[in-house]
Amino acid sequence: MTDTAVPETTRKDWMSDQEVRWCPGCGDYSVLTAVQMLLPDLGVRRETTVFLSGIGCAARFPYYMNTYGLHSIHGRAPAMATGLATTRPDLDIWVVTGDGDALSIGGNHLIHALRRNVKMTILMFNNQIYGLTKGQYSPTSEVAKVTKSTPFGSVDAPFNPVSLALGAEASFVARTHDMERAHMQETFRRAHAHNGAAFVEVYQNCNVFNDGAFEQITSKDNRPSMLIPLVDGQPIRFGAEGERGVVQRADGRLEIVEVADVGEDRLLVHDESRPDPGLAFALSRLSNGPTEPTPIGVFRAVERPEYGSEMSRQIVAAQERRGAGDLAALLRSGSSWTVE
C-alpha cells in the first residue's frame, strides 16, 4: 500500500459516536444508513469528506458522520459549501438539507449554487412539512394542506424541487426515496461522481407530522405501478409487467399510455445527457404530486464547466499576466478612497 492509497473502511468507520436522535420511524434513518454504507465503496477518505447542513431535522446529519462537518445557519449550507469548494477543490463536499431549509429561506443560495455548477452533492430530504418546528406547511406542501400554520388549508402552489433544479440549469438532477436502499445508493453514487453541482431530491417520510405523504407511490405494493424508472437509453415504461409507458405527443406533451395500445417503438427513450433540459423538465411535470405515477431516477446528467475550476483558472491567468500579488501589503495599504 502506498501513501496515496485510500484505506479500506466499513460503515462503522463512518459512524460518529453521537446518539442518533430522530423520531423513531423517521425516514432520515434509512438515508443515513444508505450513505454510511455507500461511502466505503466510493474510494474516499474520511479526512477529506465534509458534510454541511442548515437547520431542520435533516440538518443533524453531520453530527452522525465521522468526518469533518458543519451545522450552519438556516438555508445557508449551499453558500458555505460554495466557499469551501472554491478554496479546497480536494474535498468531497456533501450538503444535506430539507425542503423548508433549501426552498424557503435558502432558495436563492440553492439556485445559484446549481446554476454556477459548484462541485457539491446536495441531498434534499423532502417530507412536505416543517418537522423540526412541529408541523407547519412547507414550500412543497400540497394545496389545501391543513397544518398549524394553515388551519384553513394552504393556498400556496408548491414547488416541484426537480423542476426548480432543472430551471436553474443544474447539470445533475435526480430523485429517489427512503424506502429502497439500493436505489438511494445508486443515485447517490451517480451524484457523487458528477463533476459539478448534483441535486438529489429524496422523498422522506415524516411519520410524526406528515405520515404517509408518499405511501401511495413508495409502498412496496404500489411501487411497480406508481414509480416510473428513468434508465438512460431505455424506453420509459413501468408496471409489474412493463405494461405502461410514456410517449411524447406531436405537441411535445408527455402522456402515460398502455404499451399494448401504442407499441413499444412509440415509447419515449430516456436521454439524461440531452443538452437541452426541456425534456427532463417535461418528465418532472408528468406527475402533479406523489399520488400519481411519478418518474424516479436521474433526470439530467450533463457536463459543463465546474465553477471552482474556472475560478482557479482565472486566478492563475491573472497571476501570470501581472505577477503574484502581496495580500499582506494590500490589507495594510490604507484607504482606497477618501470621503469628504
Care to give the gist of this entry?
It contains 13 helices and 11 strands.
Task: Kindly describe this structure.
It is a single chain. The chain is α/β, with parallel strands linked by helices. The protein contains 13 helices and eleven strands. It has helices at residues 11-14, 28-38, 77-87, 99-105, 107-116, 161-167, 181-193, 215-218, 223-226, 259-262, 278-284, 307-322, 327-331; strands at residues 49-53, 68-71, 92-98, 120-126, 172-177, 197-203, 227-230, 237-238, 244-248, 254-258, 294-301. An eight-stranded mixed β-sheet has the order 2-1-3-4-6-5-11-7, with helices on both faces.
Offer a few descriptive terms.
single chain, 340 residues, alpha/beta, eight-stranded mixed beta sheet, three-stranded antiparallel beta sheet, 13 helices, 11 strands, 30% helix, 18% strand
Beta strand count? 11
**Helical segment count:** 13
CA distance, first residue to last residue: 66 Å
Order of helices and strands: HHEEHEHHEHEHEHHEEEEHHEHH
In this structure, how is the largest beta sheet organized? 8 strands, mixed
Query: Which strand-content bin applies to the residues?
Result: 15-25%
Main structural class: alpha/beta
What is Rg? 22 Å
The neighbouring-strand order within the major sheet is 2-1-3-4-6-5-11-7
Tell me roughly what share of residues is in helical segments: 25-40%
Low-confidence stretches at least 5 residues in length (pLDDT < 50)?
A: none
Mean pLDDT comes to 94
Shape: globular
